[in-house]
Sequence to fold (96 residues):
Amino acid sequence: MAALSLIGCLPPAEAKRALRTRAATLEGSVAGLASHRRALAESGLPEVLTLELDCPQTLQEAELAWVRGLIDRIDGGMLDWPLATRRALLDGMSAP
Fold:
């Protein structure tokens, strides 16, 4: 998430690419956690003993929804940052 503080330095197309990569990573992680939890449930383990997997899965699902929303906002033109903004951000980063 720390990389989001620098997203304005990227052109929107590159930012979308990075967000799509993050979404794919989250999708894989969520699927893995869900599969693990299913296997544990099928083995007879009570749900209360899998709560430590439920929490990160739920958090990652929420982050995934948020990342997808950002992508949709960029695609829909609701979130944009012009070249001048990117240059100002980059200039501010290089100031002493």
The radius of gyration is 18 Å. The chain has a mean pLDDT of 91. Residues 16-77 form one domain. The longest helix spans residues 12-42.
